[in-house]
Fold:
Amino acid sequence: MNTAANTQQNGGANSQGYSIPINRALALVRQMAGGHGSGSIHIGQPPFIGIAIASAANGAISNSPSPKAQLRQLKQTASHAGGGINSSGRCLPNELASPVPGSVAPVSSGALVGGVFCSTPAGAAGMVGGDVIVSVNGHTVTSATSLHNVIANYHPGNTVSVTWVEPNGHKHTGSLTLAAGPVK
Structure:
């Protein structure tokens, strides 16, 4: 099954085709039709906590374990977007906001909450920008990538226990019922 092709412009004769074997394509179709997801196939909407997290310059989710390094990434993203908003204590109205918390929880690793979207599970639990998530259902969270990978094991409607640390050092654990996230 052809999945993509590349041809050279301006009369060039070189072209490249990309394909996958039809048996592999049919196996994937059967898996999706049967409603069976995997690490590479997600069926339905993804689970959503309702937070903005840091990403690297290439757009990939940050794998830095340091919340302070994640804050630098958020500041860098905000500077490219024309400035950020102080996301400590206020909710983000949409995904276009560039959150930059005013302070960060005093922990060495975890997923920095850049900001919390309005009317989401994280907001209902009391999280704000600057908090750092350190575990989900007993699984240690060491970075934004780690958080993403742990949450991907659940479905919208599942309830998870989340532990986070506030910028003042107070640790909280709360139950969040995951919402349905945006389709990617």
